[in-house]
Structure formats: structure tokens, C-alpha cells
Amino acid sequence: MASSELMQPVSRRRFIGATGIALGLGALPGAMRAALAEDTWDLIVIGGGTAGLPTALFAAERARVLVIEKAPLLGGTLDRSTGQIAAAGTVFQDAKGIEDTPDAHYDDIMRINEHTSDPALTRLFVDNAADALNWLAANGYSVEPTHPVTGMGHEHFRIARYQWGPQGGWSIFKALEPLIDKAVDEGRLTILTNTSAADLIIDAGGAVAGVVATDAAGKRLDLRARNVVLATGGCASNPHMFEELHGVPLYCQIAHPNSQGIGITLGLSAGGTVRGGDKYAPLLGAILANDYYPSPPAAIPPLNPSLRLPWELLVNSDGERFVREDEPSIDHMETLLARQPGHRHWAIFDAEILDKAPPLVPNWDQQQVRDASNRQPKFYAAGNIGELAVRAGVNPRKLRATVEAYNQARATGKPDPLGLEHRPLPIAKPPFYAIQMQGWTLISFAGLDVDTNLQVLNGDGTPVPNLYAVGEVIGAGATSGQAYTNGMLVTPAITFGRLLGRQILNFG
Ligand SMILES: Cc1cc2nc3c(=O)[nH]c(=O)nc-3n(C[C@H](O)[C@H](O)[C@H](O)COP(=O)(O)OP(=O)(O)OC[C@H]3O[C@@H](n4cnc5c(N)ncnc54)[C@H](O)[C@@H]3O)c2cc1C
User: Fold this and answer.
1) Tally of CB atoms within 10 A around 56
2) How many whole angstroms from 256 Cα to the centroid of ligand 1?
3) Which one, of 494, 451, 470, lies nearest residue 171 by Cα?
4) Other CB atoms within 10 A of residue 356 CB
5) What is the tens place of the pLDDT at every residue in 14-54?
6) Could you say which DSSP state residue 359 is in?
7) Is the shortest distance between the CB of 69 and ligand 1 below 6 Å?
8) Ligand 1 pocket check for 171: Cβ under 6 Å
9) How far is the CA of 32 from the centre of ligand 1 (A)?
10) Letter string b/e over residues 88-117, b meaning 16 or more CB atoms within 10 A of that residue's CB
11) Cβ partners under 8 Å of residue 40, min gap 6
12) Closest by alpha carbon to 37, among 295, 210, 251?
């Protein structure tokens, strides 16, 4: 069965109990809805994405499993994720003769995030990640021919253990898809698409006993289960929840539209607690399309010096430089950006740099930058630095001083006070330009507190009976820490989902 069939109306030959189903709750005939309402599942997985699918696949080998998925199609964030994943001891490393250990992986993760991820979950992860990736590989997942690598875009590992498929996250889904189809066809797995979890059923003793589901028309169906796994993703498409949990606005929105944080709300309703919002870390600036948050990105400039050496100065709203523009550590650049007002910064340059430097705005030529200046949000130009600063919203007196100091040090061959080595041109030839960039993210750092059984914990650290959480709903802070640690969302989502379904859940 192809995955496109997952949204087809029910086939007459498919009956609940006789075989798995994969269709929308709203499309079910009344008799089937009634049968569902009478049933008690061993497990209901809420969310058929990166973490929910491996959870369900493995659990379905030993129990009766129902997945409810809000979207018409499975896959969740795998439809847009870069799918960069990392593990130590994989077949991909073996093929290249790369020696690696979980201990080395653990040390590298903790070095990059400065020991801010959960130590117990990080340990559980590194000890099981290679098995998860090797399982994907055994099911047809392949990676770019030059991989594994030490890094790309974020702070590099010391050992090459980082890889992704030719279609990014979708390469992972393509490996999962035949397994899902088979489990559904064999009646081991039941999937309801276009079906949202709206609430949890909680018994008088506080134990989770099922899920209240609604179809696209809002019609309710109570589904009973011995175990419930929250795998609904993060909250990086819910600006209000995001800001409440992180204390930072959701500046940019490119997460999956269903990353609304419903799993967090459901977990809290059962007594769970949230942690990790304080671990928020901004990525180096995106050029936002407009002034209203969350805004889509207009462009993501290559500020990482390993991708493009800087020709421009980066300043904060005070008109002051805050970072060595060719700083080799991306994580250090991001840490310094996090200390700037509003996580904003401006690239400052002149007419000659615009002409001679490789494009700062990907896929834009010089004329597009000229045309956008003073016409499109975030792009400014002026005949002198003071006027430019006022237009861009930067302190003019300090920006003038910053540019003069840079030009003077460069002309006299003095070392740059911040250590910048790549200083090809002065900023001297009008018109002068400023592009405003915004520190941003695409994930949520806050999430439900869980133990190493992935069981949701209440305020005093006691597990909420029958309730588990996996994937971004446990928060990037738990696995990635206060940093963008390579692959520390997709890989734990798959690794923990597999562990949960395969061995942690006890179906007695
Ligand atoms: C553009 C982008 C690039 C990224 N690149 C990387 C990367 O390279 N490496 C990395 O480690 N991380 C990356 N991430 C993060 C990573 O992809 C996600 O953290 C991870 O995929 C989330 O997995 P998940 O299973 O928790 O959520 P998802 O994969 O989003 O699955 C959640 C599912 O739950 C469903 N759902 C939501 N609410 C309900 C409800 N009420 N009822 C039923 N179903 C519901 C959703 O529709 C969805 O299918 C990236 C994120 C983005 C946005």
C-alpha cells in the first residue's frame, strides 16, 4: 500500500479487528466508530511523525497499537527537516573505517552544549543511537556519498559521525514508509489520519486511560488505552505558547504547522511538568520577510565563516560589534548573539563590498540588494553612515565610531580588537548598506520532563501512570541542551521512539 492511500476513504474489505486501517476518523462508518469506542488498545501513539512512527512500528510487533495523526498524511516534520542525524558505531562509519564510541559521542555532545543537555537522557541516547541508525540503514536508508562528516552549519564534532540522506528528512520517511505499510496491511498497526487528540482520559486515580480524539469536523470519539505516548512535536508554530515557555518571542516560523504544543498541554493536564525554556538559543540571523512576529524568513544569509568568509561588519542595535565576524566557533557566535538586545544584528557594508564580495543574500545579485534597500523591510541604504544608522534603527554616533575604528585598524595593519582576520576592504565607499538580521529558531527548547523510561514526570519527579513522551515534545533542551548540537532532535526522536516501542513499554 502506498502512503498516499493513507488518506483514501475506507476500503470495504478493511475491518477493524481483522486488519489495520489507515484513514481519517471522519471517514469511518458508524459501526467502525462504535467498535473503536468499545476497544481498549495496548497503546495509543498521538502523532505519526519522526518519533511516533518508530514507536508505533516497534510496539506493533508485540501489542495492539493505534496511531492518531492530525494531518492527512504521516511523517510530521520529516517533510521539511534537514534530517541531519548522528550516532557512534554506525554502518556508515564502518564503511569509511571511522572508529568511534558512544563515550566519545557523549563527550562531544557535552562539549558542544557545555553540559546543558540532560545527562541521563544523553547517555541513554548515545548508547542506543547506532542501533537505530543501523536499523534505518538495513531498511534502505542511505546517506550522501561523502558522509559521515564532522558537521555542517552547527559546531562540528571531533569525529565524523554526522550524516543525512539525499532528500534530507524525507529520506528517513522513505525508509519508514514500507514498514508502516506492511504493519498496516498485516493488521498489526491501525492508523487514523485527520484525527486530533483533543484531551486525555484520566481515571480517578490520576492514571491515563485513553485519548479523546476529534475528526476534522470536530466530532468526538473516546479511545481507551493502557498506555499513551505523546509524540506531537514541539510548539515552534504556536507563538503564544512558545513565548510563554521560553520568555522569547517566536520570531520566525518555519516549523511544521501542527507543532502547536498540544502534547505539552495534554501532558500538563495529566500532572506533567515543563522544563528547558531557559535553554533557548538563537541561530545566527535570518532576514525576516516582515516586521510582524512570527515572520517567514526572506533569506538565511551564510554568516557561518566556514560557508562564506565575512566582508561585512556585524553590529547590534547600539551600533557596536559584538562578535569576531570570522569566529571559527558557530556556537560561540550564537552564544554572543543571545546576549544582544532582541537577538538582532545588522550587517554593515559599502558599495565596493557589495560589488566584490560573494553574495550575502543567497541567490541574490548585487542589483537585487540595491533594489531592496529602503523599499523592502530589513534592507537599508544611505549616503553616509549616520543616516544609514538612523534608517536601520541603530545608534548613529556609535555606528560611525565602529566603522571608523574598523577602517583605521585595517589601514594601519593593527590587529582587530575582536580578532577578525578577514578584512578585505574598508567600509568607505557610498552608498552604505545595512541589512537587519534576527536571531531565530525552528524548534522549541521547552518540553515535558521525562525520565529515562520516557515516562512523563509530575512536579515531584513521580511518573504519571501510563503516560510517555518522545520527540520534540520533551524539548530540545533535554537532548540538544542550550545549543544546536548536531542531529540532537531527529536522532533522539528515532532512537527513543524505537526504544520505547521495542523494550520500554510493558504490555504485560
Ligand atoms: C526546517 C527544519 C529542519 C530541521 N532539521 C533538523 C536536523 O537536521 N536535525 C535534527 O536533529 N533536527 C532537525 N530539526 C528538528 C527535528 O526535525 C524535529 O525536532 C523532529 O522532527 C520532531 O519530531 P517529532 O516526532 O517530535 O515531531 P513531528 O515529526 O513534527 O511529528 C509530530 C506529529 O504529531 C502530529 N500532531 C500534532 N498535534 C496532534 C494532535 N493534536 N493529534 C494528533 N496528531 C498531532 C503532527 O501532525 C505530526 O505529524 C529541524 C526542524 C525543522 C523545522
Assistant:
1) 31
2) 7
3) 494
4) 11
5) 333 333 555 667 777 777 777 787 889 999 999 999 999 99
6) P
7) yes
8) no
9) 30
10) bbbebbeeeeeebebebbbebbbebbeebb
11) 210, 224, 225, 226
12) 210
Chain position carrying cell 573505517: 97
In sequence order, the β-bridge partners of residue 297 are 288
CA-to-CA separations, 445 to 120, 211, 248, 279, 424, in angstroms, rounded:
17, 25, 11, 6, 38
Residues in Cβ contact with 336 at an 8 Å cutoff, skipping those fewer than 6 apart: 322, 323
User: 70 by DSSP, 3-state: which?
Assistant: coil
Cβ atoms within 10 Å, residue 331: 20
Q: Which of 360, 285, 287 is nearest to 330 (CA)?
A: 285
User: Residues with Cβ < 8 Å from 412, sequence gap 6 or more?
Assistant: none
Residue 285 near residue 301, CB atoms below 8 Å: yes
pLDDT at 22: 58
Burial of 219 (0-12, 13-18, 19+ CB in 10 A): exposed
268 CA from centroid of ligand 1 (Å): 20
CA distances from 324 to 174, 223, 241, 305 (A): 41, 56, 34, 10
- Could you give the C-alpha distances from 189 to 43, 57, 58, 339, 352, in angstroms and in order? 10, 8, 10, 48, 62
Note the pLDDT tens digit of each residue in 223-278. 999 999 999 999 999 999 999 999 999 999 999 999 999 999 999 999 999 999 99
Q: Of 411, 436, 428, 417, which is closest to residue 353 (Cα–Cα)? A: 428
Cell of 239: 507563538
Query: Please, are residues 233 and 259 in contact by the beta-carbon 8 Å criterion?
Result: yes
Q: How many CB atoms lie within 10 A of CB 176?
A: 24
Terminal CA-CA length for the chain: 31
What's the CA gap between 75 and 213, in Å, rounded?
19
In the structure grid, which three cell numbers stand for residue 344, read together? 538582532
CB of 283 within 8 A of CB of 241? no
Q: In angstroms, rounded to a whole number, what is the distance separating the alpha carbons of residues 117 and 329?
A: 19
Find the helix or strand (DSSP H, E) in which 298 lies. strand 297-299
Q: Nearest residue CA, atom 53 of ligand 1?
A: 255
Q: Which residues make beta-bridge pairs with 212?
A: 199, 222
Ligand 1 geometric centre to CA of 258 (Å): 9
Which whole-number Å values give the CA distances from 458 to 65, 404, 483, in the listed order?
25, 56, 26
Q: For residue 471, how far is its CA from the centre of ligand 1 (angstroms)?
A: 7
Q: Indicate the helix (H) or strand (E) that contains 262.
A: helix 262-269
Q: Is the CB of 301 under 6 A from ligand 1?
A: no
φ, ψ of residue 349 to 5 degrees: the values are -155, 180
| Digit-coded pLDDT (tens) for 266-306 | 999 999 999 999 999 999 999 999 999 999 999 999 999 99
- Residue identifier of the C-alpha nearest atom 2 of ligand 1: 81
